[in-house]
Protein backbone atom coordinates (compact mmCIF):
# COMPACT_ATOMS: atom_id res chain seq x y z
CA UNK A 1 0.00 0.00 0.00
CA UNK A 2 1.41 3.37 -0.98
CA UNK A 3 1.94 6.22 1.44
CA UNK A 4 -0.69 8.35 -0.30
CA UNK A 5 -3.30 5.62 0.22
CA UNK A 6 -2.36 5.30 3.88
CA UNK A 7 -2.52 9.04 4.52
CA UNK A 8 -5.85 9.25 2.68
CA UNK A 9 -7.32 6.91 5.30
CA UNK A 10 -5.84 8.70 8.29
CA UNK A 11 -8.17 10.57 10.57
CA UNK A 12 -7.55 14.29 10.78
CA UNK A 13 -7.14 15.32 14.39
CA UNK A 14 -8.78 18.52 15.55
CA UNK A 15 -5.94 20.84 16.71
CA UNK A 16 -8.16 21.97 19.59
CA UNK A 17 -8.76 18.43 20.86
CA UNK A 18 -7.15 17.99 24.31
CA UNK A 19 -4.81 15.01 23.98
CA UNK A 20 -1.56 15.58 25.83
CA UNK A 21 -0.90 15.29 29.56
CA UNK A 22 1.42 17.77 31.24
CA UNK A 23 4.21 15.17 31.31
CA UNK A 24 3.91 14.55 27.59
CA UNK A 25 3.97 18.31 26.92
CA UNK A 26 7.14 18.55 28.99
CA UNK A 27 8.70 15.76 26.90
CA UNK A 28 7.60 17.26 23.57
CA UNK A 29 8.53 20.89 24.24
CA UNK A 30 11.25 20.49 26.86
CA UNK A 31 9.47 22.96 29.14
CA UNK A 32 9.33 21.84 32.80
CA UNK A 33 5.94 21.07 34.32
CA UNK A 34 6.54 23.74 36.96
CA UNK A 35 6.71 26.40 34.24
CA UNK A 36 3.63 25.01 32.48
CA UNK A 37 1.71 25.23 35.77
CA UNK A 38 2.92 28.83 36.25
CA UNK A 39 1.62 29.72 32.79
CA UNK A 40 -1.76 28.33 33.84
CA UNK A 41 -1.74 30.04 37.26
CA UNK A 42 -1.06 33.40 35.59
CA UNK A 43 -3.97 32.84 33.18
CA UNK A 44 -1.81 32.73 30.06
CA UNK A 45 -2.64 29.10 29.16
CA UNK A 46 -5.91 27.37 29.96
CA UNK A 47 -5.61 23.61 29.38
CA UNK A 48 -8.69 21.43 29.43
CA UNK A 49 -9.28 19.04 32.31
CA UNK A 50 -10.06 15.33 32.19
CA UNK A 51 -12.82 13.69 34.22
CA UNK A 52 -10.17 13.05 36.88
CA UNK A 53 -9.07 16.73 36.79
CA UNK A 54 -5.78 16.08 34.95
CA UNK A 55 -4.54 18.81 32.63
CA UNK A 56 -4.93 17.99 28.95
CA UNK A 57 -3.34 20.11 26.25
CA UNK A 58 -4.29 20.39 22.58
CA UNK A 59 -1.98 20.98 19.64
CA UNK A 60 -3.20 24.60 19.67
CA UNK A 61 -2.19 24.83 23.34
CA UNK A 62 1.28 23.50 22.48
CA UNK A 63 1.73 26.18 19.82
CA UNK A 64 0.62 28.86 22.26
CA UNK A 65 2.97 27.50 24.95
CA UNK A 66 5.87 27.67 22.50
CA UNK A 67 5.03 31.29 21.73
CA UNK A 68 4.71 32.16 25.43
CA UNK A 69 8.05 30.52 26.13
CA UNK A 70 9.61 32.46 23.24
CA UNK A 71 8.21 35.76 24.52
CA UNK A 72 9.24 35.16 28.13
CA UNK A 73 12.65 33.57 27.64
CA UNK A 74 13.92 35.07 24.40
CA UNK A 75 12.19 38.45 24.28
CA UNK A 76 12.08 38.84 28.10
CA UNK A 77 8.38 39.80 28.25
CA UNK A 78 6.91 39.05 31.69
CA UNK A 79 3.78 36.89 32.00
CA UNK A 80 1.55 39.89 32.71
CA UNK A 81 2.75 41.39 29.45
CA UNK A 82 2.16 38.13 27.60
CA UNK A 83 -1.37 37.90 29.00
CA UNK A 84 -2.05 41.49 27.93
CA UNK A 85 -0.74 40.74 24.44
CA UNK A 86 -3.04 37.72 24.13
CA UNK A 87 -6.02 39.64 25.51
CA UNK A 88 -5.51 42.43 22.99
CA UNK A 89 -4.93 40.05 20.10
CA UNK A 90 -8.18 38.25 20.90
CA UNK A 91 -10.14 41.48 20.38
CA UNK A 92 -9.04 42.27 16.84
CA UNK A 93 -9.75 40.68 13.43
CA UNK A 94 -7.28 38.05 12.18
CA UNK A 95 -5.92 40.18 9.32
CA UNK A 96 -5.13 43.10 11.59
CA UNK A 97 -3.73 40.72 14.20
CA UNK A 98 -1.03 39.48 11.80
CA UNK A 99 0.02 43.05 10.99
CA UNK A 100 0.12 44.01 14.66
CA UNK A 101 2.13 40.91 15.56
CA UNK A 102 4.73 41.72 12.90
CA UNK A 103 4.97 45.35 14.02
CA UNK A 104 5.15 44.33 17.67
CA UNK A 105 7.94 41.89 16.93
CA UNK A 106 9.92 44.65 15.21
CA UNK A 107 9.36 46.98 18.16
CA UNK A 108 10.40 44.31 20.66
CA UNK A 109 13.55 43.67 18.62
CA UNK A 110 14.37 47.39 18.49
CA UNK A 111 13.91 47.74 22.24
CA UNK A 112 16.07 44.69 22.82
CA UNK A 113 18.85 46.20 20.70
CA UNK A 114 18.55 49.51 22.54
CA UNK A 115 18.78 47.69 25.88
CA UNK A 116 21.94 45.87 24.73
CA UNK A 117 23.48 49.16 23.60
CA UNK A 118 22.75 50.86 26.93
CA UNK A 119 24.18 47.90 28.86
CA UNK A 120 27.30 47.88 26.66
CA UNK A 121 27.83 51.63 27.14
CA UNK A 122 27.36 51.23 30.88
CA UNK A 123 29.92 48.43 30.97
CA UNK A 124 32.40 50.61 29.07
CA UNK A 125 31.87 53.46 31.55
CA UNK A 126 32.48 51.12 34.49
CA UNK A 127 35.61 49.72 32.82
CA UNK A 128 36.99 53.25 32.25
CA UNK A 129 36.28 54.16 35.86
CA UNK A 130 38.09 51.06 37.13
CA UNK A 131 41.10 51.66 34.87
CA UNK A 132 41.48 55.29 35.97
CA UNK A 133 41.61 54.40 39.66
Automatic annotation (TrEMBL):
InterPro entries named among the record's database cross-references: DNA-bd_dom_put_sf, MerR-type_HTH_dom, MerR_fam
Protein's recorded name: HTH-type transcriptional regulator GlnR
Record organism: Nitrosomonas nitrosa
Lineage top rank: taxon: Bacteria
Single GO molecular function: DNA-binding transcription factor activity
Domain annotation HTH merR-type: ranges: 19-88
Keywords: Coiled coil, DNA-binding, Stress response
Keyword Coiled coil carried by entry: yes
Coiled-coil blocks: 94-121
Coiled coil listed as a keyword: yes
